């Protein structure tokens, strides 16, 4: 009797909240064959505050390493492939304070490195081209 209850509860799950956490959990649970009901009070899924740190600011924090930036890029591309409607293309103005402890040129080098990495991801799989043309 107890095992039957466990089986029933494990094969049917309700997720409350369709932000990035709830929607992603629901997707992965359904990939496992579990029946999922996703309950969201707003009109759409993943429509809340920003969820992706790909914007230039994220990649310009000096305290994170270039390797961490690359991880961020891969995670952001994966996320954007799942939720393409969350991409918000807009111009970016970068202001670097004097107290930042480094030159703007160093950060520019990093952006070029990340751009190259994005090109490589697109070369690996055309579906990774979620952020526009790599040369842009
Ligand atoms: C202004 C702002 C800027 C941010 N910028 C960034 C950024 O640049 N990069 C970054 O990585 N993170 C950013 N964040 C943080 C990021 O948005 C959160 O970490 C992320 O959204 C959390 O995801 P979540 O799914 O846990 O929660 P949420 O996105 O808050 O999702 C929760 C969902 O549950 C729903 N819900 C709540 N109560 C109920 C209910 N009773 N019934 C049904 N549904 C319900 C809500 O409508 C919502 O859709 C920012 C946050 C804010 C506020």
Your description of this structure?
The protein is mainly alpha-helical. The protein contains 5 helices and 2 strands; from the N terminus they run αβαβααα. It has helices at residues 2-10, 20-31, 56-60, 66-82, 104-124, and strands spanning 12-16, 35-39. A two-stranded parallel ribbon has the order 1-2. Strand 1 (12-16), helix 2 and strand 2 (35-39) form a beta-alpha-beta unit. The mean pLDDT is 84. Residues 16-22, 39-42, 48-53 line the site of flavin-adenine dinucleotide.
Mean pLDDT, all residues: 84
**Helix and strand element order:** HEHEHHH
Strand residue content: 5-15%
The biggest beta sheet, please?
Answer: 2 strands, parallel
Number of strands: 2
Radius of gyration: 19 Å
Question: Which structural class best describes the helix and strand composition?
Answer: mainly alpha
Number of helices: 5
3D shape: elongated
Bound molecules: flavin-adenine dinucleotide
Strand order within the widest sheet? 1-2
Terminal CA distance reads 61 Å
């Amino acid at each position: 009797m107890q095992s039957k209850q466990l089986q029933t509860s494990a094969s049917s799950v309700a997720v409350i909240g369709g932000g990035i956490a709830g929607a992603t959990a629901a997707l992965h649970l359904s990939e496992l064959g579990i029946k999922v009901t996703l309950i969201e009070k707003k009109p759409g899924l993943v429509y809340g505050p920003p969820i992706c740190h790909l914007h230039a600011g994220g990649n310009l924090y000096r305290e994170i390493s270039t390797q961490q930036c690359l991880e961020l890029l891969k995670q952001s591309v994966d996320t954007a492939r799942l939720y393409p409607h969350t991409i918000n293309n807009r111009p970016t103005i970068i202001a670097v304070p004097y107290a930042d402890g480094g030159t703007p040129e160093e950060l520019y080098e990093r952006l070029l490195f990340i751009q190259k990495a994005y090109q490589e991801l697109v070369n690996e799989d055309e579906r990774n081209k979620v952020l526009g043309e790599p040369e842009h």
